[in-house]
Amino acid sequence: MKLREIASVLNAKVTCGADKLDQEIKMGYSSDLMSDVLTLDTSNLILITGLVNLQCIRTAEMADIKAIVFVRNKKATEQMLELACENGMCILESPYSLFKSSGLLYEAGLNPVY
Amino acid sequence: MKLTFDIQGGDFTHAGFPSSEVKKVLKQLNIDGKTIKRIVIALYEAEVNVVAHAWKGVINVEIDENKITSVLEDEGPGIPDIDLAMQAGYSTASKKVRDMGFGAGMGLPNMKKNTDELVIESEVGVGTKVKMVNYF
Question: What b/e sequence results for B66-79 when a residue is b if at least 16 CB atoms lie within 10 Å of its CB, and e otherwise?
């Protein structure tokens, strides 16, 4: 599924990496717990989270995750966006809840990690 | 090649910077992507542990032709029972740390999973030394 479709399904605003919307994403992982994200062996996934802080971007950086959706209308800070852009990530912001976002993406064909 | 970084306890703003720098160096050295991911995830977990639990610490990274050795030494409360701390789910993290998305008791097991060698030495009330080795 292309990031462009994900953004459309989630009615999301692209705040970083608008040039990466044609990138294909295979899987989605929803979590507010970065410790769990760090245990994943897969890389080509989008992280769906309501946890908005710098360590979320750092976690994605270490785990080779190239795209994050911040749900529940959460806004990434300037510092977060700067770090995300520096690492070539795509950041989306959706007004939907974590549950709704995950459900819509699953329905649209995005695969779970497990 | 040797790299050294200081860590301040409680400073979540800069946590991850050393791991990020190490990742850049390993990429430049053309190390395989999966190996890099294992190394930096273990290092980042270890870094977050120092930020979350200790007062301050130092990271010394040494990159040789066939391996990377990271040693994190902190001044902090130490770990009274390392076997217990290694158990998945066991945690003494504060609410602040949990609010950051960590402190679920997954860090040490994940460091073990992602390293070829992991040695933890700790003295209660003094500090903890973690040595991690990964072969390329």
Answer: eebebbbbbbbbbb
- Please give the residue of chain A at the shortest CA–CA distance from B22: A62
Strand residue runs (E) in chain B = 2-8, 56-63, 67-75, 117-123, 127-135
pLDDT given at position B117: 97
In which residue are the tokens 């860090």 written? Answer: B107
Of A39, A51, A61, the CB nearest to B101: A51
Q: For the residues B68-96, what does the mean pLDDT come to?
A: 94
The answer on pLDDT for B78 being more than 90 is yes
For residue B37, give the nearest of A33, A59, A64 by CB distance. Answer: A64
Domains of chain B: 2-135 (3.30.565.10)
What is the ipTM, given to two decimal places?
0.92
For A78, the 3-state DSSP assignment is helix
Q: Domains in chain A, start-ordered, CATH in brackets? A: 3-109 (3.40.1390.20)
In this model, does residue A14 exceed pLDDT 90? Answer: yes
**Any chain B CB within 8 A of the CB of A86?**
no
